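[User] I wish I could look at a protein chain and see how it folds. I have put the entry right below:
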Amino acid sequence: MTIDIKKAQDVYKDAGESVIFTTLMLKREDQTVEKDTIAEFSDMSNSIINSMRVRDPEAQVHVAWGFGSNAWDYLFPDAPKPKELAPFKEIKGPKYTAVSTPGDLFIHVRASKMSVCYEIIDQFMGILRPITTVEDETHGFRYFEGRAIVGFIDGTENPAGIESMDYTLIDEEQDPEFVNGSYAFAQKYNHNMAAWNALKTEDQEKSIGRHKFSDRELDDDEKLPNAHNIASKDEKDGVEHKIVRMNVPFSDPAKDITGTYFIGYSKDFAITNRMLTNMFTKSDRLLDFSTPITGNLFFIPSKETLEKIAESEY
């Protein structure tokens, strides 16, 4: 079986104008009922998405959803399990820690209009609400020119278009049971924007490793040793390993709460984990202004796997 983007969920680069991230916990009150509800949701979710694309064809709807490790064990105890699906282990650096937080189900919806994101999540929750509680719900938005909330262009090095499937979709060699699935790592940061904005532009550029206006990369001798684009890189034997990443701004500005919701899709979570390890062990300069408050790993099933779940084959 070969990888096929048509059989995969939307795990490619498309940050969207409006975004909702939802992390849910199963109530674990009746496993049979909850498994049946998940089977119904696996069957209905694609219909809900397709219906919205018919209702608003210009909305550019993209959705991915999946399971945390503990949820997979609870719902499908006798089924095969994705090879890398395990609870995320926190990463302790000399100054900062990448925390691990709970999450059973994860939903990532993006579209050109928040009303469309709302409608999809509302319909999804009409099925899921009886068996879940909400661990986190974050509403994100596209900042000016697609920049991260700290003011720099986001995703310059991202694989683009159909190329992204080589980085995000599991192939037969990796895990033949789960071809066209993907791993999603979700991490939510709060920023100290006052401290960040107090830096001179030149100091911000040295911290990120790129020019703020033009987005050109700085020469290595111009960057801080722990600049973000150095500390977050995964490079082995001269080869850089990539994932598809999106940094989505969110804010309650009147409350002075502003942050970034990071979502990274990959076919091999080990790559993402090495990037995180580098960031936190090298004390990425951006972490001086950014505090991680969540950290979860999820498996995003292919459409074929969702069909198996819908038909109670797991």
